[in-house]
Design brief:
This protein is of the alpha+beta class and 146 residues long. The protein folds into two domains: 53 residues; 57 residues, no CATH class. The protein is 47% helix and 14% strand. The protein is built from six helices and four strands, in the order H-H-H-H-E-E-E-E-H-H. It has a four-stranded antiparallel β-sheet, with helices on one face. Strand 3 and strand 4 form a beta hairpin.
Length: 146
């Protein structure tokens, strides 16, 4: 463990040019943003060094981050209140105006009416035609959470 601690401590003494070179070496590509500060480079390098030595995020967390990134790209917002206990294959059933609507939880979000969605809010909007919180519409938020 002393080796990683020494490497992390050494980052503070590196020049900006050396930090950029170290970033490229560890990530095997150019930074996506050219204007990263030394502080940002140090944090990114430190994360990568620790990830290589101690392991990265579990696959389910990576999938969740991908889902949230897709939701943010599509909706411009994040629904962080989603109950994490929903497992792929689970079904949510919601009656609305005399009809029952069923949503299936899948690895990358939700399936409704033969289409894939990244958030329940999109589905609630499609069903109701109004701006609803998806977790609230499907009864996933308790009164205390509201």
């Amino acid at each position: 463990m002393a080796r990683i601690e020494e490497q992390l401590a050494g980052l503070a003494t590196m020049s900006p040019a050396r930090l950029r070179a170290e970033w490229r070496r560890l990530h095997r590509r150019q930074p996506l943003t050219a204007g990263l500060t030394s502080s940002q480079l140090i944090r990114s390098i430190a994360w990568r060094l620790q990830e290589k030595m101690l392991g990265g995020l579990p696959a389910n967390r990576l999938r969740e981050l991908d889902r949230l990134a897709g939701q943010l790209d599509h909706d411009g917002e994040l629904d962080m209140a989603l109950d994490r206990s929903l497992k792929p294959g689970s079904q949510l059933v919601r009656p609305w105006h005399g009809k029952a609507y069923t949503v299936t939880v899948i690895d990358q979000g939700f399936e409704f009416d033969g289409r894939q969605y990244s958030s329940l809010t999109q589905i609630a909007r499609e069903i109701t035609g109004a701006a609803w919180s998806g977790p609230r519409f499907f009864g996933l938020k308790t009164e205390a959470a509201r």
